[in-house]
Sequence to fold (933 residues):
Amino acid sequence: MIQFFKDVKIDWLANRRIFIAISILLMLAGLSSAVFRQWKHPNGTEAFNLGVDFKGGTVVTVRFKQRPSAEVVRDALVKAGLKDAIIQPVTDKPDIVLIKIPLEGAGGESQAQVEAGRAKVREALSSFGPETAIDKDLASDPNAAFKIEGTDAVGAVAGAQLRNKAIAVTLAALVGILMYIAFRFEWTYGAAAVIAVFHDVLVTLGFFSIFQWEVSLTVIAALLTLVGFSVNDTIVVFDRIRENRRLHRRESLYKITNDSINQTLSRTVITSGLVFLSVLSMVLFGGEVLRGFSLALLIGITFGTYSSIAIASPIMVWWEQRLDIANRASATAANRPEPKSTRVTGGPNRAPLTSGAAKRSRGAGRA
Amino acid sequence: MKKKNLLQRTIIILVVTLAGVYTVIGPRHRPTLHDFTWSGIKATLASNIRLGLDLKGGTHLVMRVKTDEVLKNLTLADANAIEKAAKDVGLPVKEVKAETTGGNYRIILEATDPSKLPEIDDAAKKKLGSDLSNWTSSISGNTIVWTLPPAAQAVIAEQATDQAQKIIESRLDAVGVAEPLVQRHGSQTSHQILVQMPGIHDPERVKQLLKAESKLELVHVVSPPSPQPVQTYNSEEEAKASLGGTVPTNRRVLPYAERNEPTTAGGQPATDQAQKQKKWVVVESPAVVDGSELRNAAATQSRAGGDEYSISFALKPTGAEKFGSWTGANINEYMGVVLNDEVKSVAYIKSQINDQGEISGKFTKQSAEDLALTLRSGALPAPIEYMEERTVGPSLGADSIRSGVRASMVGLLLVVVFMLVYYRGAGVNAVVALILNMILMLAALILFQATLTLPGIAGIILTIGMAVDSNVLIFERIREELRSGKTIPSAIEQGFARAFVTIIDTHVTTIISSLFLFVFGTGPLRGFAVTLVLGLLINLFSAVYVSRTIFMWELSRKRKLESLSI
Fold:
């Protein structure tokens, strides 16, 4: 029998300061990248490399018979008056080029913005030879030099709408998850899980800012997915903590948390590894459209796994201990003896813990 | 008892699996032998699953109805009508102004005699009737102000958007776009319409057709009657000068292009002395009849065998009555055919015309047909503008399908290999559950008529990774229970029971975030949420119920199981 982790006894919480320091450093790096870029280009949204979905602009996908080099395409575009085009050859398809141009006719009507870009690209490309007729294939047309396979043109207004919607959806999903965890666990658990998820989202966005990977609609989907995934990971650990607390009432929360992380470590590593593998296959074989999506997930899954061990658990333990100290203090102040002093956290007057334990034992009984 | 339970479970699983397999690859017609070959199965699969535009190819357009234009035009027209109503009953009016800026639509009437204001208000109410019911009027000093309250603005804008949507639908239908999708987009107040047209890869012509305003009017041209030539002007200024410098509300100055010598109305061929120069004419306002009175319009060849086309039209009975009595009373006067505020042709009225007319001009066959089509479908209540336009060519879509399928296969393979190596016997459970999950997910997509998009394929790949998580949770738990010295049956029992709580929690959180994506997300992203949610729901059946049954079956095979392959 293969077993990756057998009877591991790592004291995770002992390293909590290092973990949190690493996370803060990563988030600071992302933040400073975003702030610095924004400050350097004060009038643009340069903190992130926003795709046409969010910024407006045009992407034209062109298939060439003989693909010209990026420089040649750029020259042709400049001649047609398109100076800021990004020319991106598609790695796994040697005949396709993506041409991305920012909003044309900015300040004008969105109609003009939507149409001008493509018209100009078409004009520029005609210097390479005629375009294939609409109903024909590039290969079956002997005279044609290229074919426009697809276009995405988004006006500034539509871009702003999509952007606002994406932010609203992500935040709403986070609130939804917080509410569910607060309902299933205690609110300290929920808060810790959501802080960890926020951390994952921020770190991932930081990577996107630092490396200037394009943020498109699919990246938002990836962020939402990693929110779900990271919370999953945290829940698996928290579920185990909840269970162990009931079984070993005399143990300290510190030890229970460490034990729970260790007991679920194999599952955590295997699941994350498998999801990582399937996402990796998307990065490698999923094509250009899914690249941003899969990159975001790849990073998000890595940090989502890390954060449930290194961020969510320490925060939860710290919080519970703080509450416990506060409770003891108030209990002593009221000059009441502590009947269950063996329990490390949660005095007798802490209703949430009792109700949480009751809820859980109901759940176990049902299963 | 236990045996019976197992049998029952097996039957349920078999029925669900068979139903799933049949839904996925079963043809929707009487099956032939070909349907069971590899290519036959592929073809059936392709026709059963509804592919999104990004995979099938097509055009996605988001347009906005410029409802502010509707409100503006309405304000101008009502201001005109109010002035006319007051003058008709002989009440003195100093000035009528229409304000249409900053989301405020107001008509301000200034009277020379303030005491007449209530009378003017009444006269306007009587004359305009229901047209004025949206407005609220107030009298102060020597002015009456009619205001269009925001609620009324919203209602009018909403009606205009609905009407535009219907017109767009009928135009798409008329031009023969297969299976178009036309629906409202974004919030209710954004007045946007989404149009998806599968199979349309170059949308230029359709786009022009959709936004064509095609406002047709038949007007009285201000000119001395025939046989004098029609009165035209060489510039707009000149035309205005003839009206004394400013254009009164009952006159319009319109460009008159393309046409040559005036001909008789009613379909007489034009003479051939083309005058390219743009001219201007003064016409009476309002028009005698407009496009809303149109019964039919068709492209006709101007001359047999020629390549010039014109549009002949027929009027509805109500329009024909108006037109007939007007032409009868204006023999030898000049009549103009105005299309989108440009005079297309001018002709003198030879005799009474009832319901037939013609727009002549230098139309090609295509442009004449397109114009006739847009005339038939009615004029858009307001101009529309495109905000977003995406096209996907067929080969690009096919490429995306290929890379999506390849990525799923590789992902599936990696996961399967790992599960079999790491969990051996139990790994088979997981693999069976995973494959069943894939089949049932496709079946669910087909049953719910959900659209599969490229992000949807990403959702499937992600489901592979996440579905296996349930099995990992269960198996790890069983291993733990075995290590703690439990018997095999009770370890399995405990493993499933303990892991189940966690599985529910992890599924619910992911479903919550996917639901937000589905409800508020757009286009292809919804496809992602759909496959992920379906995959996770099915997973509760496949990874828990099915996998459990396989364990039960293993246990029942031997009286006493010495070792569990896990």
About this structure: Chain A is about 65% helix and 10% strand. The beta strands of chain A are 49-50, 57-64, 86-89, 96-101, 146-154, 214-215. The radius of gyration of chain A is 27 Å.
